[in-house]
Design a protein that fits this description.
about 260 residues; alpha/beta; Rossmann fold; five-stranded parallel β-sheet; 10 strands
Length: about 260
């Protein structure tokens, strides 16, 4: 239900999160008086290669620490495995990933103050003296960044990637042009989603002329490369941080 005169009153926001991750932000936008228009820039599907997932199923008790990259990684992993070993310590990147674990009744042993890989790598329990020879499994989507695993391996850990899902471009982009024409602001949650949008839209200016909300510096850098000029960096990738960035955008556009 929209507020009659909320801080986003009249603002039309194109939300590009995957379908499974969009409802929370859309609800916040609507409650703040804005209009949320959803177009999933990423589709989530089963992994193309299931060998790493199958290996972990047969060797899960050999790992000492499991790191979850995203809420999707949590959902796909816990839907696939009947249960996790009780002695397996758990780490989460970002508060939403931690919340996904907690909502399943699981205890998070390592949760960084920040919301990205770099923040997790600063955690005291992941420094070389604590992870040397540690058996770590990273639950992620296919083709994710290698920074986390490479850094932990450099610190002496034994790291195995378990690909639990894959990210695909939108199967149908026929509505995107019309949705862009209806929107004032675009929110994006990742480099992959932003690149997908750029790749599938034919008239690039219809995309790049918009104000764009991004979750961090990496996506800001990509947006600049793609030709966006009006870019606002949210504090992090959470729904609440994105909402705050949208409020700032609304004020900026009203000046």
């Amino acid at each position: 239900m929209q507020e009659p005169s909320g801080p986003l009153q009249g603002l039309k926001v194109l939300v590009t999160r995957p379908a499974q991750r969009a409802s929370g932000l859309c609800q916040l936008i609507e409650r703040a008086g804005g209009s949320a228009i959803h177009f999933a820039a990423i589709q989530i599907d089963e992994p193309d290669d299931t060998r790493s997932r199958d290996y972990v199923r047969n060797h899960l008790t050999e790992f000492e620490l499991a790191i979850f990259i995203s809420p999707t990684a949590v959902e796909k992993t816990l839907d696939y495995f009947v249960a996790l070993p009780k002695n397996l310590k758990l780490a989460a990147i970002g508060s939403k990933t931690a919340h996904s674990l907690a909502s399943r009744g699981l205890h998070i042993d390592i949760e960084p103050d920040g919301h990205d890989t770099e923040a997790l790598l600063k955690h005291p329990l992941l420094q070389a003296e604590r992870v040397s020879a540690l058996q770590i499994v990273i639950f992620r989507g296919e083709g994710g960044r290698r920074l986390l695993g490479d850094t932990l391996q450099h610190r002496g850990a034994n790291v195995f990637y378990a690909d639990m899902y894959r990210r695909l471009p939108p199967a149908d982009a026929t509505q995107l042009k019309a949705l862009l024409q209806q929107s004032d602001v675009i929110t994006t949650s990742s480099n992959t989603g932003l690149q997908n949008l750029y790749d599938i839209v034919e008239a690039k200016h219809l995309l790049t002329e918009h104000t764009l909300i991004v979750p961090g510096q990496r996506t800001f850098n990509l947006a600049r490369t793609l030709g966006f000029n009006d870019i606002i960096i949210a504090e992090n990738a959470t729904d609440e941080a994105c909402l705050n960035a949208l409020k700032y955008a609304k004020v900026k556009m009203s000046d």
